């Protein structure tokens, strides 16, 4: 198409309907009643009557907040979290005398944390706001009176406006089609943004408005539309138009929905009926389900545990405080006279110890609040956003062909990517390309096409491996054949019918009819490049485009469609030259999922009436005439072979019609189409069935939906990582099974458990008149098959055999019922592969829900079409493939990627890293807060639980915000236990996430104990070292201000150095944050200590005058640092030396430089927690075991035959166990 301008051939009526007449009286009788009260004054939106209706404007808002609601709503969202609400209560109480610290010092950290989260919310919502502004400011031509159209913003449209939409523009609101550039007022609409379908929908205006094809015609146009009220149903519409005192019924055929696109039509005129949030697409807009990761849910439990701990120690402290307070005055004698218990307030009153204890309880709740990490939530949110940015910018997940990078649409589930146990995948467009290629065909009982399919190559590799030949390198496993055609949609090679050679074949006339049918029986739209003259096609489906392209390449080029004609350039078998022929298009009998076929009725240049039909074999063979079955047996054999090769097949047939027969059909068909009756569709279908019979079989087509690049390798890596893959597809069983072989989900020798409703027994049940009895019998049949399979599963476990479960849609319906689903799930979990065929979108979602809820494991659903939306939203993680089936799946997903193979890196690299980082980050957060909080508790014990804080107010307030928070954020963003290359080389590393090893209760409790031990070492070391020791040159002993500052310094050093020990991968940022936090503490102590003592209180010049000059301060800090880190260091050393975790083993061989040594790598791989049962690696291992067993068996037999005479010696040797072992 180099540089040429496309010329599109105009055409009109290609579908069998009459302009705007099809409607139901019952529906239109509802107009004016409840739910059908909308009135639209067309081309007169400013009239007084229209203004009174007060319909909404066309402004669409998708933001979470407005300028007025941002602060209150955002604050409400913040304080819904129990931790933040607790800190808010503490902040309020801090201004009362019960507080152990000043109010300002407590409020500032809370404000910082809440403000940081609100800023994040503001930025995310502002992005949505910019998208809204961009959409609302798009422009469209609107009638401004006098027949003049001028550009106006979408947001300014009103109900009743007449707009002109140009080709490839989106519709700005819901419109009623008035006219188009075509004489019969048709247009083509792409609804990809609405339902994910790429096929074009045909719309047609009413006959009364179809002549309004010029701007000037609208000068005096007036009409009133009465219709249904706004609703969410995309596929129904009821209304009527009053035009020149006549009523015209309106149907979905005239409705153009917002966000759909005008295609293959120069322009249309339409009147606005629904605007803004009244449009059907906005009525369908729902917030995605709120998803939270399992780590986040466990983190909430830890927070609750810490709350419980806080309450317990506060309760214990308050009881002890009440007891000691009660004993302070005994018989008029004061025990602690220095506290003046005879002259005090209620907070310390020996005469009212209960009240004092209660008030102390409130004080303790505030004092020990540092056990709860105030910055935890905001730190995690910041880390997750930064992790999402790294995912989005990963060049190795960027698909250059479509210019689509990976896109994390939510950051809430990053760590969940590292814990996926089961993947539930769509097939078409997800595992495969959804790009059909014509690859084989059967004509007149002869099979044509020599190109090997993906499945045939997989079968060939499988036979090679089973015969003892080892597989080549992984990258060659699913490589596309070398003979790949450069023509998109056409990968056919067979010299017998290419280049016009079909004319030399014995059945040339059948081949001619076959190719002609391909070129005529369709609804494709030709586009001719005027520069090159080459024809391309817009088709309703990839299959149909492949058929038309195949016909063109084999000599029957469809190049033009007019109102009533289809024009071809076809090879003449007599002259051998291309001739132009025209076929008059009389009727199109459309394809539907119920009919499973489509037909056209045309008249050729010789006057013959031809019915051309193509459809599924299940409905076509029964329509073949007795005298048209000449090639039936061979054709059935060929389509069976094609299905085995993973190809989609269609049967092609035709027949000639007599004039009388056609006229009778056409009369009945036209009357039925215009019939006003509830059973109109069934009447039409009966009439069509009467004409689609007695066909003559021509042959069958076979198109391939190829596997995406890298799918087998990706599945193999995921299987090695211990992830199970279930395939949920709407395709028939044979195709799904063969794709399973191509992906190595299935292999030879793997027992297949097939649960199918397509059995003679079930077919006879379907014919029963008592449908309830038939359903009960079919359900019992499914249960019986499941139980038999369960018994087979039990025996296979004893023999260590891998099983595959394959179930069809009808059987799945019964398997998902409440009393059967547990049996089904138990069977499915025990199988290595699960393939669900003929699954509906609802069944996909139900299977996903079943796996998620009953197993408790993390599920990931991946798909590319609108039919996968339910599955994506139901799973813990939804991955949308941004492919060719629209954006519906992507818009409903949590993460979008362009190719299935990117799932390998997303899970094994980013998933593992994010899981490890978030787990380590949360554990460290609780460690550092326990290490700090328990020093306060120990000091309270030392101070008789008086409520006196060990530290200065601002020291405590800034501990979580400044001195320890940045290093933990750096850990969450940058840390790596192993590199991305090693993550992919050792996929078993991913099992640490599946088993939740890094965030188990054992690990959490271990870090908590480490924190308690650290706090004990810091407090008791400082107390014992400084209690009676002269601290200054003048001999003064340590006061509270010096003790508090020393303990705080030790805490800052210990928790930051503990972070340095925990990190596996240092960057400059981590060095800066860790050592910078420690340095900042000293700078802060200097600066804060220099402020007036009325503000700095106990910190006034404490560093300059007391701490810095004292050698014991520096020695104590060093000794406490070593003592605090020593338990962790000893434990880590023993654990890594004698009980290494999987990532530590990989770190070992990396540090030793042995990552390329096969022997070392094999030792590490043998640590697998779960054996690999699918993928080509498992297939290769299975074939090796099979061949080894054959060799052992044959050698045993030969040895037995040759050494039969040595029986007595062997019997003697068997009495010696060690010798027997050696012999073996």
UniProtKB/TrEMBL annotation:
GO terms for cellular component: plasma membrane. Residues 1192-1205 have a biased composition (Polar residues). It is an enzyme of class 7 (translocase). It is found in: Membrane. The chain crosses the membrane at residues 83-101, 107-123, 302-323, 357-378, 925-945, 957-974, 1004-1026, 1046-1065, 1072-1091, 1111-1131. Residues 1188-1224 are annotated as: Disordered. GO terms for biological process: phospholipid translocation; protein localization involved in auxin polar transport. This is Phospholipid-transporting ATPase.
């Amino acid at each position: 198409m180099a540089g040429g301008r496309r010329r599109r051939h105009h055409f009109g009526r290609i579908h069998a309907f009459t302009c705007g007449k099809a409607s139901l009286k019952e529906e239109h009788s509802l107009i004016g009643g409840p739910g059908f009260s909308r009135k639209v004054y067309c081309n007169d939106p400013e009239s007084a009557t229209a203004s009174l209706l007060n319909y909404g404007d066309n402004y669409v808002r998708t933001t979470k907040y407005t300028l007025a609601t941002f602060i209150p709503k955002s604050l409400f969202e913040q304080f819904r979290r129990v931790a933040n609400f607790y800190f808010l209560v503490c902040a309020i109480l801090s201004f009362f005398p019960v507080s152990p610290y000043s109010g300002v010092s407590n409020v500032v950290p809370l404000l910082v944390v809440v403000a940081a989260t609100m800023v994040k919310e503001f930025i995310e919502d502002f992005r949505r706001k910019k998208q809204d502004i961009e959409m609302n400011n798009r422009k469209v031509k609107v009638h401004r009176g006098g027949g003049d159209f001028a550009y106006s913003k979408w947001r300014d449209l009103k109900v009743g406006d007449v707009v002109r939409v140009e080709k490839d523009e989106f519709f700005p609101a819901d419109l009623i089609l008035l006219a188009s550039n075509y004489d019969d007022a048709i247009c083509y609409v792409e609804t990809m943004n609405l339902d994910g379908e790429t096929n074009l929908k045909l719309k047609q205006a009413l006959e009364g408005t179809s002549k309004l094809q010029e701007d000037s015609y609208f000068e005096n146009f007036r009409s009133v539309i009465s219709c249904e009220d706004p609703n969410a149903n995309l596929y129904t519409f009821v209304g009527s138009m009053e035009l020149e005192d006549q009523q015209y019924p309106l149907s979905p055929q005239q409705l153009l929905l917002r966000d759909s696109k005008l295609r293959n039509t120069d322009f249309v005129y339409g009147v606005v009926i629904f605007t803004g949030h009244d449009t059907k697409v906005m009525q369908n807009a729902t917030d995605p389900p709120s998803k939270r990761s399992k780590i986040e849910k466990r983190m909430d439990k830890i927070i609750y545990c810490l709350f419980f701990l806080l309450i317990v120690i506060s309760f214990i402290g308050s009881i002890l405080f009440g007891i000691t307070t009660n004993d302070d005055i005994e018989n008029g004698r004061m025990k602690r006279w220095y506290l003046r218990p005879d002259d005090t307030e209620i907070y310390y009153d020996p005469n009212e110890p209960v009240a004092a204890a209660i008030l102390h309880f409130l004080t303790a709740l505030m004092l020990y609040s540092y056990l709860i990490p105030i910055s935890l939530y905001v730190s995690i949110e910041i880390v997750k956003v930064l992790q999402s940015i790294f995912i989005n910018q990963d060049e190795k997940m960027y698909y250059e062909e479509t210019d689509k990078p990976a896109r994390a649409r939510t950051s809430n589930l990053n760590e969940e990517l590292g814990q996926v146990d089961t993947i539930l995948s769509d097939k078409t467009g997800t595992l495969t390309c959804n790009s059909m290629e014509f690859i084989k065909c059967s004509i007149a009982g002869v099979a044509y096409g020599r190109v090997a399919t993906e499945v045939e190559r997989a079968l060939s590799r499988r036979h090679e491996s089973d015969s003892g030949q080892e597989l080549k390198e992984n990258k060659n496993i699913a490589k596309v054949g070398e003979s790949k055609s450069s023509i998109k949609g056409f990968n056919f090679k067979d010299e017998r019918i290419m280049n016009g050679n079909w004319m030399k074949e014995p059945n040339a006339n059948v081949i001619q009819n076959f190719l002609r049918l391909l070129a005529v029986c369709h609804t494709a739209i030709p586009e001719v490049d005027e520069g090159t003259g080459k024809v391309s096609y817009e088709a309703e489906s990839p299959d149909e485009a492949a058929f038309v392209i195949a016909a063109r390449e084999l000599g029957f080029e469809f190049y033009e469609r007019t109102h009533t004609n289809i024009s071809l350039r076809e090879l003449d078998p007599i002259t051998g030259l291309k001739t132009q022929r025209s076929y008059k298009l009389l009727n199109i009998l459309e394809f539907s999922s119920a009919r499973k076929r489509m037909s056209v009725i045309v008249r050729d240049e010789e006057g013959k009436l031809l019915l051309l039909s193509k459809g599924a074999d299940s409905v076509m063979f029964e329509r073949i005439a007795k005298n048209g079955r000449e090639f039936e047996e061979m054709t059935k054999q060929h389509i069976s072979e094609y299905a085995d090769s993973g190809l989609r097949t269609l049967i092609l047939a035709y027949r000639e019609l007599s004039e009388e027969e056609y006229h009778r059909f056409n009369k009945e068909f036209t009357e039925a189409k215009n019939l006003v009756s509830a059973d109109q569709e069934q009447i039409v279908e009966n009439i069509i069935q009467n004409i689609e019979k007695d066909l003559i079989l021509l042959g069958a087509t076979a198109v391939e939906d190829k596997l995406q690049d890298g799918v087998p390798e990706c599945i193999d890596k995921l299987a090695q990582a211990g992830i199970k893959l279930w395939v949920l597809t709407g395709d028939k069983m044979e195709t799904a099974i063969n794709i399973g072989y191509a992906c190595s989900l299935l292999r030879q020798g793997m027992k297949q458990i097939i649960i199918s409703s397509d059995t003679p027994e079930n077919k006879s049940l379907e014919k029963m008149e008592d449908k309830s009895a038939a359903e009960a019998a079919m359900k019992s049949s499914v249960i019986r098959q499941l139980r038999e399979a369960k018994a087979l599963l039990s025996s296979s476990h004893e023999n260590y055999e891998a099983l595959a479960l394959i179930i069809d849609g009808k059987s799945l319906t019964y398997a998902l019922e409440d009393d059967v689903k547990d049996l089904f799930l138990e069977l499915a979990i025990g199988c290595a592969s699960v393939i669900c065929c003929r699954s509906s979108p609802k069944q996909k979602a139900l299977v996903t829900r079943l796996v998620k809820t009953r197993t408790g494991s993390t599920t990931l659903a991946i798909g590319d079409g609108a039919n996968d939306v339910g599955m994506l939203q139901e799973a813990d993680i939804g991955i949308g493939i941004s492919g060719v089936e629209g954006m519906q799946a992507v818009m409903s997903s949590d993460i979008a990627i362009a190719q299935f193979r990117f799932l390998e890196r997303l899970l094994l690299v980013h998933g593992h890293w994010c899981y490890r980082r978030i787990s380590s980050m949360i554990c460290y957060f609780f460690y550092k807060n326990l290490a700090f909080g328990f020093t306060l508790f120990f000091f309270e014990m030392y101070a008789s639980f008086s409520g006196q804080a060990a530290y200065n107010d601002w020291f405590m307030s800034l501990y979580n915000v400044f001195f320890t928070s940045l290093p933990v954020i750096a850990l969450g963003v940058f840390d790596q236990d192993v590199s991305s290359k090693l993550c992919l080389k050792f996929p078993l590393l991913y099992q640490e996430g599946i088993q939740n090893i890094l965030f188990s209760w054992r690990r959490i409790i271990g870090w908590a104990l480490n924190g308690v031990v650290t706090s004990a070492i810091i407090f008791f070391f400082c107390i014992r070292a400084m209690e009676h020791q002269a601290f200054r040159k003048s001999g003064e002993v340590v006061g509270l201000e010096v003790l508090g500052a020393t303990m705080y310094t030790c805490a800052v050093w210990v928790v930051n150095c503990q972070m340095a020990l925990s990190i596996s991968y240092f960057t400059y940022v981590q060095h800066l944050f860790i050592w910078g936090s420690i340095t900042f503490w000293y700078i802060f102590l200097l600066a804060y200590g220099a402020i007036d003592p009325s503000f700095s209180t106990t910190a006034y010049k404490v560093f300059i005058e007391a701490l810095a000059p004292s050698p014991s301060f520096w020695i104590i800090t060093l000794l406490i640092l070593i003592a605090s880190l020593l338990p962790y260091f000893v434990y880590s050393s023993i654990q890594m030396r004698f009980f290494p975790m999987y990532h530590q083993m990989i770190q070992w061989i990396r540090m030793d430089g042995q990552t390329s040594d096969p022997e070392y790598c094999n030792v590490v791989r043998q640590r697998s927690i779960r054996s690999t049962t699918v993928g080509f690696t498992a297939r290769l291992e299975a074939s090796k075991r099979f061949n080894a067993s054959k060799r052992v068996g044959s050698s045993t037999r030969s040895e037995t035959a040759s050494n039969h005479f040595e029986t007595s010696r062997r019997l003697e040797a068997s009495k010696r166990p060690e010798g027997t072992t050696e012999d073996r």
